[in-house]
Amino acid sequence: MSRVSAPCLLDRWTEENNAIVDKWKQHRDRGDAVTREQGLTLLKCCYVESHKLLQKIQGVLAVPAHVQLELTVVYNCCLFSFSQTQLTEAEHLLTHSLERGMKHVHTHTGRKHTHLSLPSSPISLTSLPILCAALGAVGCDRPPPNPPVFWCMVLKSLGSTPSLRSCALHLLCLSWALWLSTCRLGHIQELQEELQSLSEGLGAVEVAVERSAVRPAVLVHPRDLKDLLLICTVIAQGAELLCEGRCSEALTVLQRDPSPLAPRELLAQIHTLIGLCLSRTGRPHSAMQCYRKALETDVRCVCALHQSILVYRQLGNTQAEIQALRLLHSVLMMPPATQPAVAPPIICPASLLPGQSLSSLLIVPSPLSVLHSLAQKCVLHGSVSEGVEHYLDLLAALQSDHQLSQGFSEAPSLPRLPELYLEAGSSLLTAQRPTDCLALCDEVISTTLELLPERLLLEEPMEASVPGSPDKLGLGQDRLGVVLWSGAAYLLQGHCYSHLKDWKQAVTHYTRCINLLMKVSVKQKGEYSAWPLEHMSIDVVCLLICVSGGCLDVCWCCVAGCVKLELGVRTLQRLKGMALAGRGISFTHRDQKRESLRDLQLSLQAAPGCASAGLWLTEVLWRLGRRQEAAAFWEKTQSSSTAPSLEGVPLYLLDPQTGPSLDLTDLQRRVEEFVNAQHS
Predict the structure, then answer these.
(1) CA nearest neighbour of 100 among 140, 79, 69
(2) Is the peptide bond preceding residue 349 cis, with omega within 30 degrees of 0?
(3) How far apart are CA 159 and CA 162, in angstroms?
(4) What integer pLDDT is reported at residue 155 of this predicted model?
(5) How far is the CA of 620 from the CAs of 182, 321, 586, 589, in angstroms?
(6) Is the separation of the CB atoms in 538 and 565 below 8 Å?
(7) Which of 20, 105, 135, 279 satisfies CB 3.0 to 4.6 Å to 287 for a cystine?
């Protein structure tokens, strides 16, 4: 190629580059005049045209006038590759072109060039994926020898010429974007000084470049790209530190002054992350202020609303929590915003923040999970009618999604479907709608009827994890769940008939519940069989047997399963205690005092601390003429200051708020008169 033709080629290629950029910018500025599909097609076309132009530029011998144009076209090509999520392609193209530029500068300045083992010939569109795959196969998935070292060499080599320094800084912004998109925050940290000085560097070279007559156009102005990268880096670094538990360091990073022109959604994310830092360091009120700022900045920041709910829960502000749950559910149920007609921007914040750390921090529960939490809170805190409606809406939504056949709800945080039916039935009974509760319980019973085992023996669950043995643990847990669901349904039906004062039917259904639960027995085997279950946690038993049997590789997995099994056993005991108490109270109303006394005593053995069983036992003892025992038991009940913990107890296993009640004032008066008479 002769030197005379070089200016002609330079002008032609510059015009071709500018035409590609102008074509895309004109489409972008047209807004809704074109469809999204047309925009994506045009983006793909510009991507291909820019790469073809780069092939032509790199296909001739380099001359000084070509280097700036080539690096500018590389900048645009990499941006187009970025828009097509071709990150590996963009990275290798960037490294290869910078190597060519440094080699040319060193050739014309007489300085020795340090080779980085990259090809000097142009990379075609067809050969680039092959090259990327080959480099990846040998482990070269990053610019050799090391990105910080590489970029120090680039800035040193190209920094002496203002125009080339401008191009180098532009491409440094691109590398920054690639590191963010591939979660390589370590490279950003190592080049922190160079990246922070980009603002002054870009401003200094702009003056020199603007004096030239012909200037190659760029897709995205580097200053705009740099501002976006700064705030995205703050978010990514803060999120990573927060996930590592380094809240103070994360707070320092996140409180850096962002650009006032930063996207509102990113500013809202920063406020939310700062709120998370404050909440985790014991400052919930300050955290609430940050969540409020996030919502004021971007009303679509539902994560801030969700986090504010958690803070209200922590502070015990139930009414505020319920109001926030209502608002969150209404926002999540709004139809999604329609996608803009135009193609998405070349680089968007979502593509720069793909990390799992940020996703885990900004996660928002599904609308069904929020609706379930709202229903529970309303039932437990006085708004029973509203809670019932929410439960019915939840069941209708699950049925419409065809999830009934699986027995599981779609959202992982939701209970299983039979449990949701039981919670809804319990709320209906609390709302004085026993007939509807009976219908829901019938649905649970009919669904689980064929799955009920004849007998269920819960053995040491370690056997299920020993290689070569059948999976008894998983099967046993499923069977236990079926028994508990069916038993709870019979229990609720007993409560319903007690509410209707049909004591015969109440006794019948409580008895069905008890008979069903009696099919389950817990057995311990081996050398630890002499240790009572109530004196030794079942997960500890499991771990000891794992270690003694040499199964160290599976013991911790078994512990997780044992914890679930232990919770199931506790639920079984509470369910049995409530069924016995309900039948005992029903026997009292049928004037079967001895049967009532037996069941109430067994109830307190199965589930100690049941207040209703204790009070009714006092009444039955009094009616049987055993007034000394009644007075002693009354005094014991009243002096007990430790109420049983109901944490983790399902809604349908809480003490019923309807049904037979006892006149405590009259009982207390009788007991006190008897005690005073005894002392006088």
Answers:
(1) 69
(2) no
(3) 7
(4) 84
(5) 72, 42, 12, 10
(6) yes
(7) 279
45 burial class (0-12, 13-18, 19+ CB within 10 angstroms)?
middle
Identify the pLDDT of residue 158.
82
Structural contact between residues 443 and 421, judged by C-beta atoms closer than 8 angstroms: yes
CA distance 173 to 196: 11
What is the Cα 17 distance to its own chain's centre? Answer: 44
Closest listed residue to residue 74, CA positions, set 174, 146, 204, 210: 174
Q: Helix or strand or coil: residue 45?
A: helix
Q: How far apart are CA 76 and CA 63, in angstroms?
A: 20
- At residue 613, the pLDDT reads 87
* 470, two tokens: 């059948």
Q: Do residues 79 and 219 touch, judged by C-beta distance below 8 A?
A: yes
Angle at the Cα of 183 from the Cα atoms of 182 and 187, rounded to 5 degrees: 100
pLDDT at 60: 75
Residue 112 in 3-state DSSP? coil
In 10 A of CB 544, how many CB atoms? 17
Q: Read off the tokens for 272.
A: 């939310």
**Residue listed under structure tokens 């149920």:** 333
Backbone angles phi, psi at 77, to 5 degrees: -60, -45
For the chain, the 3-state helix, strand and coil shares in percent, each to the nearest 5, are 70, 0, 30
| pLDDT < 50 positions in the chain | 1-4, 113-143, 205, 207-212, 402-411, 461-476, 526-559
> What does the pLDDT read at residue 362?
92
Residue type at 318?
T
Asked if 623 and 600 touch (Cβ cutoff 8 Å), the reply is no
What does pTM read for this prediction? 0.81
In which region does residue 362 sit, left (phi positive, over 0), alpha (psi from -120 to 50) or beta (all else)?
alpha
Q: What is the greatest pairwise CA distance in the chain?
A: 128
Positive or negative, the Cα torsion across 109, 115, 121, 123? negative
